[in-house]
Amino acid sequence: MIKINSYKIIAVCVVSLMFLNSCAKEGFFKPGDARKNPPDPRERVKKNLEEGKGFRIDNVIGGNTRGATNFEFASSNELWRASLDVLDFMPLTSANYSGGIIITDWYSEKGNAEESIKITIKFLSNQIRSDAINVDVFYKKCISLNNCQISKQEGQLKKELTKQILAKASVYQKQKKDKNFKPYRMSTPGD
Q1: Phi, psi at 93, each rounded to 5°
Q2: pLDDT tens digit string along 10-57?
Q3: Residues 6 or more apart from 63 whose CB is under 8 A from it?
Q4: What number of other Cβ atoms are within 10 A of residue 137's Cβ?
Q5: Nearest-CA neighbor of 101 among 76, 86, 84, 78?
Q6: 26 and 16 in contact (C-beta within 8 Å)?
Q7: Which structural domains are found in the chain, ordered by start?
Q8: Cα–Cα nearest to 120, from 145, 146, 139
Q9: Residue 111 carries which DSSP code?
């Protein structure tokens, strides 16, 4: 039994060495030329990153990337802002801008604990169009605490929410254009 385990260890070592040897031929373990690399380690790291030969731990874990960040500002997306404004009376379970989805928690009017609604908005486009968002309304009707029926319904509430979101998004888009609008002014003699 000892011989079998030692054979397995030897086989794993041989395969590992063969793999590492093939990696060296592929260029993963090329020796560097000291004349072409800067002596300062910070400059070497910067050069390697510019050439795509490495990565920074900060980038992986979301730390400081010193100017190389990719900002996603949800506040610049009119549909997103409008959706949050329309749903501001409901508690949110999830609002993921990168994933393009807003999910509310179950909501019921005061004094009506047997019936509640949940709304999900999926963003299909950033353009302000009726097919850019998909609004789903779920109704929960409970007879008792553990006896509830949940159903997805198409109806007036879905249409009204979509209409309100698109109207508010259009207002935001117009405000943004008006704010950024700089009319062309011709110079006249004497200006």
Answers
A1: -90, -40
A2: 888 887 777 666 555 545 555 666 677 777 777 776 776 666 565 555
A3: 57
A4: 20
A5: 84
A6: no
A7: 6-61 (no CATH), 74-178 (3.30.530)
A8: 139
A9: T
